[in-house]
Design goal:
18% strand, 290 residues
Length: 290
Amino acid sequence: MITVIITAYKEPQTIGKAITQVIKNKIKEKYEVLVFAPDIETIDAAKKFAKQNKNVRVIQDKGKGKPAALNIALKKAKGEILVLTDGDVYTNENSINKLISFFKDSKIGAVSGHPISLESRKNKFGYWSHLLTDMVDLWRRKSKFISCSGYLYAVRKNVLSKMPEETLSDDAYNSHIVAEKGYKIAYSPDSFVYIKYPTNFSDWIKQKKRSAGGYNQLKYLLSKKSNDRNIFRESSGIFQVLNYPKNFKEFFWTIQLILARIYLWAIIFIDINVKKKDFRKIWVRIESTK
């Protein structure tokens, strides 16, 4: 059995499409969809779609964050394979079936989907989102170890265990747990998940602090040190990044992005190592992605 878990927070406008697109996958195996949200607006919106499909259940969590909601989901899920996604993104109509197909190999513990930006490449922040998602796509295709995308990934339920509630990046944490237990992580490039990315610098920094900071946090949460994501590993792909732009304007935006990433890693280092900021304070809601 397959359990699709959708976590959401204050996303009544997007939760319906997230659920609808999952249903449109016409999952070939027996399945259930569990929708978690703490706020009544999202809960009410999700329940309208749950009435239309008996496989959908809506559960109100206590608002302690995504890791806490996922810990509840882990207890309630009936499926042997869990598909995790969010309430502010949506899949294409065959994403989930393609993810599930990888588990025919008993050595596979998790499978990552393929994030696709919904933003226009014609403006700076849209261009940044395309560059970063395309670079991650290339990296996932060739890397020996990949970390799953939190926007869409599937994992064997029996591999997971309760995660710390302060975890910033559930996808990074679970990916390393899968690897620690001796399983491989696969990549499904045709399992598209469509995402709205930040449209201003303030929100961009907030989002990237959460994701990049989440990887930095792993060394405090895991038994084995993680070196999957840091400024030095990012710099190894600089030539691919510089070859990405198609014109002078995009090249200028690329240089700005490189400087922005350096600034990002600097403030993460200061927040964590100098100011000793609580990791949980790094997570903030990003309005322009809703």
